[in-house]
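Protein modeling request. Please complete all fields; requests missing the sequence field cannot be processed.
Requester role: graduate student
Desired output: 3D structure, token encoding
Chains: 1
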Amino acid sequence: MLILGKPLPIHAIPASIQKGKIVQAQILTFIIPGMMAIFAAVLFALWRTDPSRTYVLAFAYWALAFCGGIILQGAIPWNFAPYDILLFHWNAAIAIIALIWGVAKRDGQRSPVAAMLALTALTTPILYFARTYEVQSVLLISQNFNTGLLFALAAQSKWKTAPRNAGDRAIIWVFVALAGYAILRPNMTVLAQSQMSMEQYQDSVFASLNIVISALLALMLALSLIAMVALDNMRRDREVAVIDVLTNLLGRPAFESDVKAMLARGAQERAPVSLIVCDIDHFKQVNDTFGHTAGDRVISHFGEIVTAKIRGTDIAGRIGGEEFCIAVWDCRGAPAARLADRIRLAVANSTRDGTSGLQAFTVSFGVAEALPGERYAALFERADHALYRAKKAGRNKVALDGAQLRGATGPRSNEDEPVAGAQIVSFAQRKVGHVS
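Delivered output (436 residues):
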């Protein structure tokens, strides 16, 4: 597969090539694809453990397409006519786009698939004419420019999300390396080729070095993907042990542990973190009037709404009987309050017409943005105080601690706008000591 350049097919190696380089070409043509095929099989097996994680299947497809591309280039005696170049170009681009889509899907983000396909389509006629008229420099630059820009977009998108584990951080740096190498490689290649013939270049150490670097970066990416998925599995297994069975949200110990880690990461990366504390209004009356089964259904329903409204980078947990908490990553207080109000309205709309079979209920919310160096206990105390203010203001409201609604920035979302009928109140921030 064409990622940063083509492995040299064995049949295209000049007869004068040294025996050691023939062995090297065989290794690059067969050993590397074999390893990628193993990685594809591992990723496919990981997907089989949870078929709902379609992003893992996208990773497996990328590895398999990489393997297939190299095998085709090494085994089929093509002379790389213009249409052959376009076939490899689209094979590579679709595989990379699937990879980028999978990474974004895992992070709960949208991937600009249409834009990436448009970019690939734009470079297609350039490749065709460059190959037809043997303009080697344009061919190399256009091939690698497309790949480099795709990986640059992937690195930027991944950088904006909160890395969950070492696999996430490795993915970011491999994307950066792939983008940088794809952009630098054609310039180095054109410079090297200007000093020698094409046959001499193909027989040179520089050409072999290019192939080795491309293959190693691809292998590093495959290993990072496997590590990321494996760490996700470990995290999922840990959460299963501490999950709230009624809502499928984290229980209090696991939630608090993850939020403390998020606050530490936010301080390190200078990313704002906000906390939303939620409490179902008059929940005791629901239990007393309609029974505990009805109360359980209300709690479960609210958990489903929270899960649907938050992003993959946020954390939600049930911290008490009818009390919930949401930690919102890379989000200031005002946008977090608007998120809380969207959840509040979703609750009201879901029970308004009576078709859900649930007793109508409302929820109150308290929101606070973490101060520099603030610990979880102090942040929770301020958010909980805001919740008290929301209850005192008449319930079914969102109270924002301290921060003004105007001028604050938060998560980049097309839903990050005030909604009609918002019930958000603000009050002066009170000083709270830092408590561990």
